[in-house]
Amino acid sequence: MSIPKIELHLHIEGAAPPAFIRGLAQEKGTNLEGVFNKDGSYRFENFNQFLSVYEAACTVLTGPDDFGRLTTAVLEQSIEQGVIYTEAFLSPDFCGGGDVGAWREYMHAMQEAAAKLPQIEMRGIITCIRHFGPDQAKTAAICARETAGEFITGFGMGGDEMQGTQGDFAYSFDMAREAGLRLTTHAGEWGGAESVWQAVRDLKVERIGHGVQAIDDPALVDHLAEHQIVLEVCPGSNVALGVYADWRSHPIERLRERGVPVTVSTDDPPFFHTTLSEEYDLLGHHFGWEEETIRAVNVTAANAAFCDAATRDKLLKALEPAS
Ligand code: HPA
Ligand code: ZN
């Protein structure tokens, strides 16, 4: 497909090709027992196992240089998919343990790697991890506040949505907002419509990671549509993790039809055996998405991107149909 793509929801560590993680493990003599299947793919059967395997894979990413190399590998993968702009979730917890000085070095390594690839533009969303708790989240928020700027443009939260409430993290989100960062959080992937209400009400985010379970609450669907709160939808991730049994039952098209602004992303593509092109192919297959819809969804993503006006204009121009 020739339409350029904009991806708003991608975890940098979760986008690591398994061979890249295995290579680092070999270099460092780290035993990654249990992380891979015999065929070399990541091994997990449910969301909690996914989170454990994810964190185990991260143990081989031990310094800024590793994250620089990871960024190059991930962006090259995205370029191959026709992605011209990507926002990656970056976690200070995996990059120096929340220490601001260490984080700065990791961030510079990623920023430098991205700057070497002119085919794609990257921004970082600093992400706290919900199951590490609100105190640890504050260290991520401080890293975000201290490095907010051209490259770090957002703050968000991932991890186990069933731990605590969104509001437990309000202090960190307030700090990030005051530092000028734009906000998103994972909600309504596992925690139902109530978790999305919490995200909107208690964290005042302008985008929602996943948000798909909003479909179960018509008043919430209306609210998202009315306030144009953008969903970062990752259908392949939802199907792979069993949030929905299959593509046919995924609510993305019903949400879109009800006027909710939806965008399409891959979340952790090698974990879920997906690519952004495959996501659009399957949206075409199951919901009849054609070029016009795909272009419109990417325009929605460009308008919702956490970037400066000049970059947004460039993205919107790239999305104009050739005349
Ligand atoms: N959900 C929540 N947290 C995550 C995910 C996800 O899909 N991927 C990486 N961290
Ligand atoms: Zn995610």
Automatic annotation (TrEMBL):
Cofactor needs: Zn(2+)
Gene3D superfamilies, alphabetized: Metal-dependent hydrolases
Alphabetic keyword roster: Hydrolase, Metal-binding, Zinc
Key word Nucleotide-binding present: no
The keyword Metal-binding is assigned to this record: yes
One Pfam assignment: A_deaminase
Domain of life per record: Bacteria
Residues annotated as domain Adenosine deaminase: 4-319
GO molecular function, one term: deaminase activity
NCBIfam families, per the entry: aden_deam (TIGR01430), PRK09358.1-3 (NF006848)
Family that this chain belongs to: Belongs to the metallo-dependent hydrolases superfamily. Adenosine and AMP deaminases family.
Protein name: Adenosine deaminase
Origin species: Litoreibacter ascidiaceicola
Lineage: Bacteria, Pseudomonadati, Pseudomonadota, Alphaproteobacteria, Rhodobacterales
